[in-house]
Amino acid sequence: MLEFREKVSLKPYNTFGVDVITQKFIAIDSIDTLKKAITLSKKMPFRILGGGSNVLFTENFDGATFLMNNKGIIISNEDDHHVLVEVQAGENWHEFVVWCIKNNYGGVENLSLIPGSVGAAPIQNIGAYGVELKSIFYSCQALNVIDLSLKKFNAQECNFGYRTSAFKTDLKGKFIITSVCFQLKKVPHEIKISYGALKVHLKDKLPSIQNVAQAVIDIRQSKLPDPKKIGNGGSFFKNPLVSNSLLKRIQKLYPEIPNYPNSDNQVKIPAGWLIESLGFKGTRDGDAGVHKDQALVLVNYGSAKGSEIVALAKKIQSAVNQKFQIQLEIEVNIL
What is the mean pLDDT of the chain? Predict the structure, then answer.
């Protein structure tokens, strides 16, 4: 019989290390377990937790928390050039990337060392160093929380955007991703190293998927704090997209502002630069702070409450908006 654990601390299950209590808790190891858990939770709210790397808890939860812990990686189809790999939602993302690199399957190498679970990856359309998940996404299977039916979604149905998807908008709360299918290259025809830091790191090395993956790991470890050592959720804010006209106005005062063309009449500005230019880098308010080496990362130095980290984030948003007329959007899910 399926049994929930009662009044469980979620501190070990979120990378910020925030201590909140969920009324009920259960680890999900299969679709059958997930269906039974939903059925038993009909009279109370429930929420899904993956790797806990993109969430900030601000209060106790008077409901049930389902930790996606279903495992498995299988090759569902292949030809001479490509392979379709189906991965269960509870698999650790980076461990899946390592599996791909060992098997010489290309496409995920730029996404090395991103924390979190495979099931959460399409929701966020994770991306790094010039690559987004949508470029290797083939389909995902998800459970309808109302009638407990399974449905497959292709890339178009997921409506991927910058750090978003249909699962964060129209389909939010309606489906739970149970597995994801990726189309990877057996013989990589194109290795993406256009990102500046990668170019520098690989200038004297052959750009193989193994070398790209190691370069990404080295860069991330040098720039981002390890959640096992200091609580954090990675990049706290999205890099804002602004109009060319706004950029020109800002450049009159800050000609050195970095910017990257994104589309017609829009450019991307690094949120970290905006935050650092206002002097927030390395600042601290109690146990909530901005990391000393990366202004885009908010951290928990020990016993910060989620609400205290949110308060710091709002302070940063207000300062950036006042100085640059740019509204920073929070990337981390606030619960």
Answer: 91
